[in-house]
TrEMBL record, chain A:
EC number(s) stated in the UniProt entry for this protein: 1.18.1.2
Description of how the protein assembles with itself and partners: Homodimer.
Binding site for FAD: 14, 33, 41, 46, 86, 121, 289, 330
Lineage of origin: Bacteria, Pseudomonadati, Bacteroidota, Flavobacteriia, Flavobacteriales
Record's protein name: Ferredoxin--NADP reductase
UniProtKB/TrEMBL annotation, chain B:
Gene3D superfamilies: 3.10.20.30
Protein name listed in UniProt: Ferredoxin
GO molecular-function term, one example from the UniProt record: electron transfer activity
Pfam families, alphabetized: Fer2
Length: 353, 111
């Protein structure tokens, strides 16, 4: 069991900055994120995009902002559970919480902060009416164990790197690999596209373009995919297969958090912005893009502000009998849990006073 | 610079003729959001960076000079669903006077 003062779900910019604000109050943080690295969208989706509205940075690349935030919070030694998604929350008798991930990792904390941004990134599922009934019965959105597909018939759908790479990989393992894409052009790396064309020519990959999988058939398990060709939409091709793997990238979803009993409005978690960004569950806060309140602005800088306010409230919740007076880092400096200390030279402090 | 008229057919099939400002550096996705023509959280999820396709629309009349598709937009539409030959990401269409009279239909919300 991982124990901490504040458990933060989501390691995007807001979650990371919350570690700093908590650290100033001597509170330890641990972060959970479904992605394998910290930074949220900034790292996963647009690391090379410049951001222009971070105070003090006329321009900063999203990836560099994350690097700087990680440097800033280093003295506060946060813990990370990465590549796992927060699945369940259980309130304990003493008012604390146990949060368990999809891989079973348990975390115990008196305060839980949801800084999940737009949610966890989940595979984009194609709009095939009966796809859900074949999930784990022939339909997979992620390839975890390639050996599962040895000597099987596999249909992959998609036109990006992921679809190309797996089609190439499985061509050596599977009995039959079909790659279906709605266009003739593929958007992946050139050498991957060329490799797929080569494998197609020698019959190792059955390349079907200008077509989409529009229906699935089978009794208990998947047996066939139904393919609709652009040229003759009325004529359907039925293809026998053991597996159908649609690879269309990731899209953000609120995920299991939506079932935690939190008050949700417009796909975001309602909080009390007049006070401390607490949700309807006392001890559970929501900050950053994942929350909503009158006048909400989904900006990184607003997430930073919310993190600071939230930490003051969290401190009072954890230490109800202690009185904490907000201090400026220019005056009190920054004392890390690792023994590091940053502070202004005394004569400077004196001259300010 | 004045407002222009754009017809936007929402996901329920209802047509809305809106006055879109040309002097606010808006794109078509932001117009859809500001006139609340789709529920919050269903259009422009990525903020307008051609990274989610939630703002996909179909261009219904082609006499207008639309900007060419960027590689990012092509990439995203390549992964999106319900894509047609006239699909565009509305976040990649800046509102300019040349678009006066444009007619678009919002693509269905992806699952």
């Amino acid at each position: 069991m991982i124990k901490t003062d504040i458990l933060i779900i989501g390691a995007g910019p807001t979650g990371l900055f919350a570690v700093f604000e908590a650290g100033l109050l001597k509170l330890k943080c641990h972060l959970i994120d479904a992605l394998p690295q910290p930074g949220g969208q900034c790292s996963e989706i647009y690391p090379k995009k410049p951001i222009y509205d971070i105070p003090g940075f006329p321009e900063v690349l999203a990836g560099d902002l994350v690097t700087n935030l990680m440097e800033q919070i280093k003295p506060f030694e946060p813990g990370f559970t990465l590549g796992e998604r927060a699945q369940t929350i259980d309130k304990q008798e003493d008012g604390s919480f146990i949060v368990t991930t999809n891989k079973g990792t348990k975390h115990h904390a008196p305060v839980v902060v949801i800084a999940g941004g737009l949610g966890s990134f989940e595979p984009r599922k194609p709009p095939i009416a009966n796809i859900a009934q074949f999930e784990d019965k022939g339909v997979a959105y992620i390839i975890r164990e390639p050996e599962v597909y040895r000597d099987k018939k596999v249909v992959i759908a998609g036109g990006g790197d992921s679809a190309l790479d797996w089609a190439i990989y499985l061509a050596d393992i599977a009995k039959e690999v079909s790659l279906i894409h709605r266009r003739k052009d593929f958007r992946g790396a050139l050498d991957s596209v060329e490799k797929v064309e080569e494998l197609s020519k020698i019959g190792k990959i059955n390349l079907i373009t200008d077509a989409e999988v529009t229906d699935l058939q089978g009794e208990n398990e998947l047996e066939n995919v139904v393919i609709t060709h652009k040229a003759s939409a009325s004529e359907k091709e039925i293809k026998e297969t053991d597996y159908f793997i649609p690879l269309f990238g990731l899209s953000p979803k609120l995920g299991p958090i939506a079932d935690w009993g939190l008050e949700i409005e417009k796909n975001a978690i309602k909080v009390d912005n007049a006070y401390d960004y607490q949700t309807n569950i006392p001890g559970v806060y929501a900050i950053g893009d994942v929350n909503t309140y009158p006048g909400k602005l989904k900006l990184i800088l607003c997430g930073f502000h919310e993190a600071a306010i939230m930490c003051q409230s969290a401190y009072q919740r954890i230490f109800p009998d202690k009185k904490y007076v907000m201090k400026y880092t220019t005056v009190s400096g920054v004392s890390g849990f690792d023994g590091s200390k940053k502070e202004a030279k005394k004569e400077v402090v004196k001259s300010i006073n | 610079m004045s407002d222009i008229k754009i017809t936007i057919i929402d996901r329920e099939g209802e047509a809305h003729v809106v006055d879109a400002p040309t002097d606010m550096n808006m794109n078509l996705m932001e117009v859809v959001r500001s006139f609340e023509l789709a529920p919050e959280g269903t259009v422009g999820i990525c903020g307008g960076m051609a990274m989610c396709a939630s703002c996909q629309c179909y261009i219904l009349n082609f006499e207008h000079m639309l900007p060419e598709q960027s590689i990012e937009e092509e990439d995203m539409l390549d992964q999106a669903f319900f894509v047609q030959d006239n699909s565009r990401l509305s976040c990649q269409i800046p509102i300019t006077e040349e678009l006066d009279g444009l007619e678009v239909k919002l693509a269905p919300e992806a699952p």
